[in-house]
Amino acid sequence: MIEMPTTITAILPPEIISHIINFVLTPADRSAVALPPAHIATKTFLSLCRASHVTKSLARPLLYRHCAYLDSIPRVRRLYETLRKDPTLAQNITSLYLSPYVEETSAVAYNNGRSKLWHICSLLLALRPSLICLILNMPLRTMFIGENLSEIRNQLRQAFESLTMLEVFCSVQDELYLPMIDEGTGEEIFSATTYTPTWTLWPRLKILGLYNVDAARDGYFFSYLAAMKNLETVILTRADCLEDWSWEELDAFWKKTSANKDRGLDIILVNTQGGHRVDEINLSRNEAGMGVGVKTLHVSTGYYADEDDIELCQKWVERNMLAGQLIHTWS
């Protein structure tokens, strides 16, 4: 009597099993920046990692590539510890959603805050050779209030500065507020002559999303953008002082100051319809694709319009960025 094999690995070669496992992901799943822990694909990959050595070897790279969704400090810590034991896994993580901050009072957060930030810094440094896309949801402007964390805040900035492979970045809650800190006085060093936005140090950056930037005509924001040779699209959510510019003036400024004369820039303005400080516009680049294109997008409010505009806009941008949708399809 012939004994029948009892497992899939006994009857199928690894190539076929790999093909089957790859079909766990739908096209939308593959486009997403990171799938959350509750997603069926994440759960399936975890189960496959525990099923056998064969399925683990095939599913684990997909788990790290598509499911790096860190919405708590314990998840940050566990991923860092895993990468410390096996640094080769980091090469699979090209996209990351990082939202680790749990609201606490400053008094409780002091000692824990140092440890939290250390783990975040260590993780970012471990991922710097491979990370291409980062969606960040951290309240950098408020999470340090009342805390003397000067040294670790500088280390956090340096960790972000090291992410030179980034091509896509979105800061959901602010403009990536990371000024250097005087470790003697604890005061922020934040002047035009001493401060450079961290994102200007990422030479490969193509898509940049920021919240509530100061886009004033007498400021430096558009000068920073013009200096970035590969930047193609900027998503500005509830930006300040855009009304200082006419789009013709901004287009002329860009053509004059851009570090790369062979490309234009698309600017996406996101706000609720009543929150926009500029008139609705859908201005394309010129026929050669040069100059500045501008488009206003309206975030829908509820029937009673009683939701907070800030939270509505932040969640809308985060949702679209996480889905990996092409920006020109946003509406």
Write up this protein.
With 331 residues, the protein is α/β, with parallel strands linked by helices. It is built from 10 helices and 11 strands. It has helices at residues 14-22, 27-31, 40-51, 53-66, 73-85, 106-127, 150-161, 221-226, 247-257, 309-323, and strands at 69-70, 95-98, 133-136, 168-171, 180-181, 188-189, 207-211, 233-237, 265-272, 282-283, 292-299. The strands form 2 sheets. It has a 9-stranded mixed beta sheet. Strand 5 and strand 6 form a beta hairpin. Helix 6 (106-127) packs parallel to helix 7. The chain is globular, with a radius of gyration of 22 Å. Residues 104-111 have low confidence and may be disordered.
Q: Quick recap of the structure?
A:
With 331 residues, the chain is α/β, with parallel strands linked by helices. The chain is 36% helix and 14% strand.
Strand content: 5-15%
The side-by-side strand order for the widest beta sheet comes to 1-2-3-4-7-8-9-11-10
Helicity, as a percent range: 25-40%
Structural class: alpha/beta
Radius of gyration: 22 Å
Mean pLDDT: 86
Task: Give me the oligomer status.
Answer: single chain
Count helical runs.
Answer: 10
Outline the low-pLDDT stretches.
104-111
Number of strands: 11
Outline the secondary-structure elements:
Elements lengths: L13 H9 L4 H5 L8 H12 L1 H14 L2 E2 L2 H13 L9 E4 L7 H22 L5 E4 L13 H12 L6 E4 L8 E2 L6 E2 L17 E5 L9 H6 L6 E5 L9 H11 L7 E8 L9 E2 L8 E8 L9 H15 L8
Parallel strand pairs: 1-2, 2-3, 3-4, 4-7, 7-8, 8-9, 9-11
Antiparallel strand pairs: 5-6, 10-11
